[in-house]
Design goal:
Helix content is 37%, strand content 15%. It is an alpha/beta fold. The strands form two sheets. A seven-stranded mixed beta sheet has the order 1-7-6-5-4-2-3, sandwiched between helices. The chain has a five-stranded mixed beta sheet with strand order 8-9-12-11-10. The mean pLDDT is 96. Bound molecules: pyridoxal-5'-phosphate.
Amino acid sequence: VEDRRKALGASTRVNHPPEVELTEGNRPILAPIYHSAKFTMSAEKPYWDQFVYTRISNPSLRRLELLLAEMQKKEECLVVSSGIAALTGVFLGVLKSGDHLITFKELYKPARVFIQDYLPRFGIATSILSLKDLDQLDSYIQEGKTKLIHFETPTNPNLEIIDIEKLIKIAHNRGVLVSLDGTFAGLHQHTQFKTDLVMQSLTKYANGHGDVIAGSIAGSATLIKRIRDMSHYLGTTLDPQAANLIERGLKTYYLRYSRQSQSAFKIAEFLEKHPKIKWVRYPGLASHPSHRLAKKQQLEMGGIVSFELQHDLGMNAQDFCHRVGLIQLAASLGSTESLIAPSLTFFGSDLPPDEAQKLLMTPYSLRLSVGLEEPEDLISDLQQALF
Ligand SMILES: *Cc1c(COP(=O)(O)O)cnc(C)c1O
């Protein structure tokens, strides 16, 4: 081999670097990142059963998919380039022209916008209910037309909880698929339910370090194949380097989620007692309207706390975001650092103000994502901002 290389010119050599062989049993503990857009194929197997081209398949992406399917107790998983690509993948992969979708007002804003502004272009109609209308859900199902019910729990930003078992029962009785946006609950919760599809923004708790955008869809092999086949043409591929960062983040996922849940509970209790706070929403507080349901269907309550300032403080939500110091103003959640955002500006600006108000989004309401700092330091920060 050495001799053959010697015969090659400089430009040929730099494009074919020397190969480093590993003896059997001498393997890296962390698998390498397959940072290659293309693969050469063996003649032994059909080419399309092998890794061919990263837009279609890549070992680093596949490893993450297998891990995520396992964590969520689903048969299959597809990773994509963002949480939103996971959402659009579900809608475009499952629905076609003439179909009907049911969803809820209490939804992540970009999901609501895509459903309202873009799905009609493809001839897909939507009914948007309130989570409080669960008892009427059956009457909104159009025989032969309604194909999917999409929902979140806990919802973004105000942590409403929906009865998943009840929703699935109504949907499946009428042959309708359900998809859950599991971003807030994470990868380890709600796995006991027969959700057909669960999509995630891996950008949040899964990665945890706030340095990557990614998403995933998990479900049956049949449904995921349908979505995967389409994703090859939509081009929503995740970068292998990003997949590796998600895999690294997942190593501490359970530790982070638990610690963030514990700290969020302490902070929620502090805010609830504070005279300058109008209300606090945290599923772990007995005052949460669905506290019992949350305790029944969740293992942990998560790291998000929502609250509203009293209106007569001469300070609105935006002002408050600039008065906290350790806690930083930012749109994301589930990071190691604590982040805060004014709810109306970030999550409700597409809604008429009275609709937003019904969903508890006012110029005084905030969403706090609790990080891994000492909870006492975070409480001091909130205390000084409220002074
Ligand atoms: C962030 C988020 C998304 C979108 O994920 P991206 O990774 O930002 O594309 C979807 N759903 C929920 C509930 C989210 O919080």
